[in-house]
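Researcher: Please generate the 3D structure of the following complex. Treat every line as part of one assembly.
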Amino acid sequence: MVKILIKIAQVGLKSETALPADDALRQGTARLNEDVLRLLGRALAIRHVDAGSCNGCELEIHALNNPYYNLDGLGIKFVASPRHADLLLVTGPVSRNMEQALLRTYEAVPEPKLVVAMGDCGCDGGIFAENYASRGRVANVIPVDVAVPGCPPAPAAIIQAILTAVSAARR
Amino acid sequence: MPRASSSRKAQPGRRALYLRALLLERERIANHLGDLGALGNDGGLAFGLAQFSRLKEDLLRSNERVFGYRYLMDRVVPGGVACDVDHAAACALLDEGEHLASELRTLRAIYYDHSGLQDRCITCGRLGPRAAALLGVVGLAARSSGHAMDARAHPGFAPYGELQPAVASHRNGDVAARIVVRFEEAFESLRLQRLVLERLPAGELRAPLGAAAEGAFGIGWVEGWRGEVFVALHAGEGGRVRRCHPHDPSWQNWPALEHAVIGNIVPDFPLINKSFNLSYAGADL
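Model: Done. Output below.
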């Protein structure tokens, strides 16, 4: 126990400030009004859907919770059911096997159903594009509010995309 | 990425081979750090996740600075590598390695002394040597179950013949064994990184490749962090790929997880699953 406490004291706080929202990432019109934002406060629940990702994006999603990015510290957490979620974070091109599952997940999310498409595959289909196994980009299957490109996008960019999605009315 | 291709008559230069080894070992270190943190967390020691995920992030940021990519993708290319390490970068990586080894020694002592964590891991999720052999288990999981097999120790995997990698192994086949093997491999990878950087030969980064002859076969075989990654290519007309078979260790090891969980309590499943940490996409990262 003493060794653990010494290590914690030596390392100190590592958390960094998140990047502000960026309108360039926005896909559609602003859908949130001040009332909704006040209701959400600073708390946001995210349901992550792997619609056919190579798991590269998942590595960076895991990194969001490391001490540097400290997503929990921003009041943002991942949940295990779309019914508990405010926002869907979708990775991968949408494989045909996951198309129905993604649609049902989207239907299960309560309004305002925010969606962030993550990674080159989520944004435009990536190297998979559209083929016999892939429906391509996430926007081909469900409406997307914010898209964040990258292979995979860096954690700071993912946080920025999430913050952009929830700050739609603050322009 | 495949390390060699016999379908085109070209051998990467010595500098390119050393840099490929450097990339491979840094990928191994990063992933072992991530797993060691997650294993601590699943065993009830959240402190471990915070510390190891911090160290992994440091390493990824250093990858971004030196190689231009956090996950080192597209740095290995046909005929060589698409990156280089200058003297200043080599010194920075050596310093980082020294510092990381010191942090790892402290955290290893904490993990090994933590009775709560050890209680969760010892005898949990055992995969015996016989089951591992029958299922054809590869890589880290095989080495934790008594099979000291590692493609880096095979002849012909340049430049490892000159680096003499020590193959970590353990007989118990439980979660604790897979933790021990990860720690030992992380230290060994840091030693290999130091050797590579100290001996980095001069030479070209990328040998020119001609078109592959129609019908030619090529294979690539590397010991990735999870186990051996094997790719077979069959060239077709005009240098195009006729057939390609990628075989990754996750595909090979998934059935072993079903055996390892038998007789264990349900709350131990996440811990056992994480101790193998196989890819859900089957695309080895």
